[in-house]
Fold:
Amino acid sequence: MKKIITFLFIVIASVSVFIFITRYKSSNNKQILRVGISQIISHVGIDAVRDGIVAGFEAKGYKNGENILFDFQNAQGETSINQAIAGKFANSNYDIFIPIGTQASQALVNLIKNKPIVFASVTDPVTAGLVASKEKPGGNVTGTSDMTLFKEQLELLKKFQPEDKKIGLVYNPSESNSQFSLQETKKYGAELGYEFITVPANNTGEVMSAARSIVNKVDAFYILADNTVIAGQEALIKVALEAKKPVIAVEQSGVEKGALATIGINYIKLGERTAEMALNVLNGEKPGDIPILGVKDGDIFINSKTAKLLDITIPTDLLEQAKQIYE
Amino acid sequence: MGSLFFTSVELGLLYAIVVLGVFLTFRILNFPDLTVDSSFVLGAAVTTILIRNGMPGILSIFVGFMAGFLGGSLTAILHTRLGIGKILSGILSMSILYTINLRLMNGPNVSLLNQPRIIEIFKIPTNHFYLTLFLIIVVLTIKFFIDWFLQTEFGLWLRATGNNEITSQSFSINTKLTKFVGIGISNGLVGLAGGLITQYQGFSDINMGVGTVILSLAALMLGEALTSKNKIPILTFVIVVGSILYQLIVNIALQLGLAGSDLKLITALIVIISLLIGGKNKYQFYEKKLFNN
Structure:
């Protein structure tokens, strides 16, 4: 009997809380902008995007608590909570939703069809099933992508070594990431007049011999966004530096390990741009007509010790722009 | 309000299948099986790949079950044939399945958003009634199957194995076989739930299994706190209720303005309160289960 009473109590309590919340919600005034922001987990990149979003709204005169209310949700890496957050948002009266990252975006796009969603920092929104195409997303969804800055990274090499033509690429044929970044690199490289010499490495241990096999045929190396190659990038950098060939890394860690330079994603700026997009949508633009925005702003990282070793003078404008210089 | 209530009930029913699976190993078989975190993803991964290749979503119920069963049998083989400890064999097959899942999905995340899947048949998110009805039927079928199965001769052997393995062996019960079947069915149910949940949320992700064991244990204890009876049909029923209550509490907490990051605390509180209501005996029971292996 005691159990049944406990059970009934819990059920009645839950239902009455639900009713209370619904009443309370519907009586709120509509003057304030309400934004639901969700993320699957905390990490440096995602948190920086979130801060950027808030900064982006602030730059346009929206202050949290005054004329805008943010509802920040973090699923702490758990699918069921991610789903519950999506359910909460789907049943809310918020004006717009900004999910950060692939999983949070997928859960919201799945449940919300009648309100705008502007996702932030999804690498490949088409494969993730969020939008029909990058140019014309369609439906109630648009957003920003944190796709690697392939073009900018290749251009960076041009600024250091304008006469370099042949670039060596090591890739893992069994990794889908690698296939994708190889294809993108070749596309942008052709526009810049580069010629590529590719060599496969099936695992981290093969990266060194792969690099060695082409080191004399190339002017420079470019490290692809390929997990195998990134894991073995120290070996690649060592081979290249021994032959006095510069290496452009795909991320900061490569420069730290001796690559000449890279240009990496600035996540705060990405968040600010997402906020601008969201405001455009709130001002009446149709999300389905706004193309997916890639990263435009990058942070430059340079290794001056490597530059000295290779007898490369660092252009002064790059020195000024650089976020960090490793010595 | 209505649809929010339904969202919680739907999630509760979906996870109830996982909790029933966990009940079989943790409670009946006295086997703290950690494979769950990965066999959940295995069911989801296999279902996702097959749906993307044209299989109707509804068949996932069988496919997810079979995938999960295979995942569970890996743990059972490691434990019964190779003599590896219970927890360790679970951890080992969890890591093995992680790699297999990555290979199956060919990446960490596979989308189902634009694929025909079960929630479209039931017209989610516009109408929640049919999906809820469907889930109630699935969950009750599984509940009655477990009730029936544990009363068959083989089911009684399985329960005996969980109560006292050595005595069971002296009655010439093949405890290797009972463990194999028990862990297999348990993970089969988990895989089945994985296949349904992946269709419900619209994607599979390599990390979607994180925390499944903890969530299931919380729901299991919450359910058990509702009764002092020890009969299987009552237990399987309160477990389903516990899972729904758990999701209701989580949703209420979110509605009240608690951040998603605070929910781990809520989970812990649910477990503590359940243990207090359920009495001290159950607490000792879990302590024995979790730490004596």
